[in-house]
Specification:
The chain is α+β, with helices and mostly antiparallel strands. The chain contains 21 helices and 17 strands. The strands form 3 sheets. It has a 6-stranded mixed beta sheet with strand order 4-3-2-1-6-5, with no helix packed on it. It has a 6-stranded mixed beta sheet with strand order 11-10-9-8-7-12. Strands 13-14-15-16-17 form a 5-stranded antiparallel beta sheet, with helices on both faces. It is flat and about 110 Å long.
Length: about 525
Amino acid sequence: MDNIDLKPVKEIDTWARKQFTGNRYIYYRRKGSYAECHCAECGGRYVLRAVETEDPFKDMALDIEKPERDMQTVCRKCKTKAIYKPAGYTRSEYAFCRICFGQKVDDEHFVFRVFYADQHTRQGCDTVYRCMEEHRIFLEKSRKPSRYCNYGARWHQSNVGENWRYLVFPKTYKEIAKTGMFKYVPVEQSIMNRYYDECGLIDYYIAAARYPDFEMILKAGLIEYADNLVRKIPVNPNPRGKNIEDRLRINKNRIKSLIACKGTKKVLEMYQLERRLGKHWTDEEFEIIKKLRENTWKTDLNKASTVLKYTSPIRLRNYMKKQKMWMPGEKADWRERNRRQDLRREYYDYISMRINEGYDMTNDVILFPTDFRRRRDEMILMVEKAKMDKRKTEVLEKYPKIKSKYKKLSEKYSAAAGGYIIRPAKDAAEIVEEGRTLHHCVGGDGYLRSHNDGRSFILFLRKADKKDVPLITVEIRDEEIIQWYGAYDRKTNKKLIDAWLAQYCKELQKRKKKPKTVQKTAKIGSKQQKTA
Ligand SMILES: [Zn+2]
């Protein structure tokens, strides 16, 4: 279908030229008593001469007119209306427009062809007009449109929407009226002209082709809904639905009230939520949902829906009131509003955590705890620990050489001095734990892999009397420190640590020279002992 042969359209060319009637130029050069003129439109050249009038007291006057910059005139040769521009003092002029031409293919197929037309005038040269077909948008009944663009010499598939301004070639309207799938679609100007005149035309008919009930939606008065479809604002339609309530994804009894508000997105979303949860809310319950939707973000309602799945809106409201997180009255100031909104968010967080961990959500103790913040904090620690344990098991398996190399590395790198000790990591899990406690990134795969493969090694620098407490993490290659960091990537006691490590490196060099006499806990840095 997309490859159908489309003939070039000569009429577009002519029509395009007419769009530039305001930008036709005559270049003039005044020379004493005459002026040379060059019409860029027809290429004609002629001279306007000053003639002496019969009255000797009058000044010399130019024939008919004296050219001035930007003055309107008429070409003496081709009679076209044009604007005077002084030759030699004018930049080239450029204008362009896009023209959209819609063509019927058959009753269920339609194509929009978009032409890029431009006009370029340089002084001394004649005006050049070009008109190139740039885009093709193929519409097919009940399908997404397929788009092609012609930026080079060939057509490419494209995902770019129609965001440009364009003029509609008048014949398009006749073609639309001829096409079966558009025949009964009402022409809703308020939607088509939302941005610029007619510029919603392509989007409008894309929606009309894609959604088979578009015609019915408009006729029912769901204008806002149709507008959202045209503007591709997500309203979650179900094109395969058998009837209107299925296609809108709402309960049947809500159609009337949705029409009453023209299909506004806010209301639609609440009805869609009701159906998604398999509920039939009463008026009172629906008022509560509205309240939940008001003054909050849509995501808040989505989060609330995780709770509403297991309970009624009334019970949720009562709990929120008790917990002082229900929407405050109109008079409440913004601080109170924000505080309550934050509380609600925390509560929703708590709920989704419970759901993720597979708790029984029909249990009121779980759903409506007396102190959900405390329960939430407990959950966070629990989830964190489970994650950590999982990660440790994973890395032990993935980087086994860290453990097997430990003994050898320890002989090479372990040392103690000035109240500090340094040693390599015993296994991958220990590195992950170090990263977690110190809140830096050493537990990431990059460092683990590097240590595992022997490119660089992770060492722990700790206080001698607190050997199990992470303090400083060091990355080393041979006898050279690559980097070191403390908690939160900070370098507390930088001077002291740098000096200690410098001394340590010297010691490592010495060990390298006489490897047989290595002492496991060599004394280093006697100077630092005082400062430590
Ligand atoms: Zn002319």
